[in-house]
Amino acid sequence: MRLCSPLWLRYFAWSIILTTKNLWKLSSQDLFKKGTRVWHRHPELVWIPGELEHDITFSTRTVRIRLEDGQVEVTNADQLPFLRNPAILVGKDDLTALSYLHEPAVLHNLQVRFIEREVIYTYCGIVLVAINPYADCSHLYGEDVIQVYRGVGKQVRELDPHIYAVAEEAFFDLAEFHKCQSIIVSGESGAGKTVSAKFVMKYFASVAGHRDGSAGVENRVLATNPIMEAIGNAKTIRNDNSSRFGKFIQINFDEKFTISGAELKTYLLEKSRLVFQAPQERNYHIFYQLCAARDHPLLRDLTLGPSDVYWYTAQGGDSRIPGVDDREDFMETLKALELLGFGSEKQKSVFRILKGILLLGNIEFKEDGDNCTISVRKLSLALLQISQLCADYKIDEAQLRLWLTVREIRAAGESVRKGLQPREAVRSRDALAKLIYAQLFSWFVHHFNEALTEKERRISRNKSFIGVLDIYGFETFDVNSFEQFCINYANEKLQQHFNQHVFKLEQEEYEREELSWVRIDFHDNQPAIDLIEGRPGLIEYLNEQCKVVNGSDLEWLNQVTTSASLKKNAHLQIPRVRCTKFIVKHFAADVPYTVEGFLEKNKDAVTIFVDYNYKFSFYVPSKQTVKKTVASQFRDSLRDLMAVLCTTRPHYVRCIKPNDLKERFHFEPKRAIQQLRACGVLETVRISAAGFPTRWTYEEFSRRYRVLYPEGKAMWRDKPRIFAEKACHKWLEEGKFALGKTKIFFRTGQVALLERVRVETLSVSATVIQSCWRRFSARRKYLVLRKSLLTIQAATRAFLAVRRLLYLQMHRAAIVIQSSYRSAIVIQKYWRGYLARREKIEFRRKVVLVQCCVRRWLAKRRLRELKIESRSVVHLQKLNTGLENKIIDLQMKLDVMVSDDLTAFYYTSRLARLTLCCPSSREFALEIERLETECDVKEAQKGELETRIHELSSRLDQVNWKQDYTSGCQQVNILCIISHLFRTKWSERCAVVERDRDLMREQLLQNANILASSHFSRSSVQPFCSYSGRQPFSLMGPDGNSVSLSGGSGDLEEIALILRQQQMINDLRMRAEQHQRENERLRNLVEASSLVDSLEKKTSLRSFESYKLQELETAHARMKLELERLVEEKINGGLENMNVKLHEESAELRAMLSTRFERQSAMASGSPRPDSGHWSAGHSDDGSSDLDEDLCKERQCRQLKALAE
């Protein structure tokens, strides 16, 4: 059982104590603050959630509630809104576990479990609430689910709520406490009462059936279900399988608590359904089953037709039910009849009677003067149908025609027959059909009881049983007649029993036991019951009116309204406007009843006719002289039922119908709350959470739970009250139990806790006993094994000792024998060692000799290879490869230095020319400005070139070193093209410098000619003269041909001209050699790019380019500095200093030329003379090359000196 929530106890106590307005306001400040989650009443959804917009204080007159959709509702502060439970409590499987127990909390909790979790069962204290899902939930009722709940006992409340849990609890209480139990299943039509009752019986048949596997009485009990559904259930607008009668199944158990039999009692069969069905409704299922299986061998002789040809089965229209096969249901009905002992002949008789009822419904009456005559709907079948009806019932056709159209009135020993009008004849016909069907229904019930109880007749009457009550729920329609009056009367009685069990008996018990308990007011419906069954009462006046000859419904209503005692009853209301209705205030709702038909339905109009004229095999006439009315019979049967229920411990199952459209897992709050109010679930919540639903006598408690307090020893027998108090204080919390005078009371869930502790204690005790016994058995077995083992070990040790002795003797003898041969073995050992060492030494010497010969041969062969290789050109080329690379690097550096010197010389000569040419300082200043502009332009061009070089180097750095050979070659080609463009632009810039340098060189050579002529005249005047006399002087021309000169007076000028031409040729050759070297360098660079996969060569190329860029930047900076220095000297020193420097430079050049010619003259003494025929272009080229080199070196020295200054 679930524990009660402490929050609920506080809230419940607060709602009871705060009865005055002042106290209510005082406590409301602590509960109703701004933002508190509350419930607000809604016309369609009943209750919707919201939050308070402000605090509720003493002065609050209106309450503002903000709903979830953002709307704000204003209500009166006289009635506070209900509080909402925390989110953690929503969806609990027991409503008593909620902190706030009220109507919206119960409704919301059921809706969440049903819609969101698709759970159909919920506990409400001692009541199980079952909501009809209108879906296939067969997986919830299988045999495996039965095994889950089987044998759990009181701890079943710890499992999920289920109909099997209620059945298990009832069966456990029957077996443990030997008290009869009852399960009351109630609810309105379509709520699932019949299905719930079927599952209860299925559970009992499974857990209490015969264990030997034979077909016991439990199978016969289950077999009654399909038969009772066939003859007592019908389709209504609200339910496809609605039970139109109430039943109480009493399942009997023997001393071993196995099913030994059953008894079936029925209440108030709806006979009016036999003759009338509303649209979209059906008659009882059995008629449609007969028509659907009319070709069955048992039914072929009956010649039945389809259901739409009979008036009693065609009134509702379409008779089909989705998902139902009437033929298959008929086969199940036949199997059940056979299992219950109905033979084929008896089955045919039953089916013949049912067919006769259908034929009876097709009889019509037509007016014939003051009387009426019989006619049939289909004239062609008239004679056949009436004859079949009379043959089936074994009655005279003439008598049937007579008594269906007349009635007999007896008075003072005389009888008078009076003809009936067609309307009266139809009512008489329908009454006869209802009587026949009712008697057939009772006959079935009687035979069922015989089949289920025949084995119990020898058993004592003090038997245990569990009763299952499946009865109609509270009903209210637009038009409520006699049937609804009886149904609601039965529900009033059941509600009174529920009230007595849950409310009245609870509080009376608490008062008797002198418990501290706050009395709770509840709705007592005894006044409503007195209104119906009291004297005087509605039933009493109805019976009196039935005895009056000319009694009518209006006379009965008039008698009720004029009764002084009934007027005082607050549960009866008479409309102010005179009409045929009266209102009864039932416990669930106020129901208006229409009095039309009450008298006719209450009295059996054809009872006298049947008693005196026709004797059916299934009809047993009453021995009473005066027949009881239907209302009296129903009242007496209800009293008997209440008497039986009062001797049992009840278990309640409340079935709820969630919607009227039979939609799957669809919940309509308005329909659900009506049923919750009608079945008393809300009151159950309140009393179950606040009361003590479980109680024990001290003797029973101490006898069952004596294992819970072993410290008391015999206290449980001598002082049970003290034992109960100490045991409860040990295991339960304070306030969860109460001690009365003769009983101890427990709140919900406490007995389950004690049961669990008891089972655990017994399990531990059993484990201890088992462990002690196992220890004793194991020790005894161990001692036997130990004794046997010691004996075996002693024998084994003796055997091993003897065997060891024999082994030692044999070992000693072997040692003595071997000692005599030990000397010979030692000698053999040393001799074998000597032979092995000698053989090894000889083998090693031979191996060394062979190795020496092989190494000598290999050394000679290697020497020959080295000699051949040293004389080969390829070897020399490999050795010179490194030197050539170094020479190329030095040559490139020298070219850079030469280009820098040429650039500086260009600017120097340009400045000198400007100095000589400019006549005035103003023109000189203009020239300086122009030069500065050119420098800026050159710097800008240089910056552009640097930017392009930087971009290209960046792209080159981004190149992936792992690319293939083709991509590397492409990058190198691009680099070569860019380098060629750079060289082209640089050559254009240097062209002007070279032209100026050539002019300056020509001037210097002209000056040097003078020295050269004097030198020639001093050193070799005689040879020259002598030589000139013999043959003319010859020189090599620019084209390489020999030019002859005579020794006339113009020889000196011609010689100077030839020298100038020769110098120009040398310059051109030098430039060609430079271009050749540059081409060779570029060719080497291209060849190196082919080896781009080598990381080392790529790195050197990049370093060379960066070095070349740095040299260009250095040259540019040096030129700029030189230009600034020249400009500054021009400004400071003027033209005089420049002339002086130029004269000094010219003198130095003359000295250098003279030195150079002297060196050539010295070299010419051991070689052919320059003027001889052996002078060649090679010598001239070498001489001019050496001269240029000396000039360049000297120029560099002067520049270094100038920079140092």
Automatic annotation (TrEMBL):
Segment forming the signal sequence: 1-15
Entry-linked Pfam families: IQ, Myosin_head
InterPro entries: IQ_motif_EF-hand-BS, Kinesin_motor_dom_sf, Myosin_head_motor_dom-like, MYSc_Myo5, P-loop_NTPase
Entry superkingdom: Eukaryota
Record Gene3D superfamilies: 1.10.10.820, 1.20.5.190, 1.20.58.530, 3.30.70.1590, Kinesin motor domain, Myosin VI head, motor domain, U50 subdomain
Keywords in alphabetical order: Actin-binding, ATP-binding, Coiled coil, Motor protein, Myosin, Nucleotide-binding, Signal
Region (Actin-binding): 638-660
An annotated GO cellular component: cytoplasm
PROSITE patterns assigned to the protein according to its UniProt record, in alphabetical order: IQ, MYOSIN_MOTOR
SMART domains cross-referenced by the UniProt entry: IQ, MYSc
Annotated binding of ATP, by residue: 187-194
A single MF term (Gene Ontology): microfilament motor activity
Chain ranges of the Myosin motor domain: 90-759
Region feature (Disordered): 1158-1190
Name used for this protein in its record: Myosin motor domain-containing protein
Source organism of the structure: Haemonchus placei
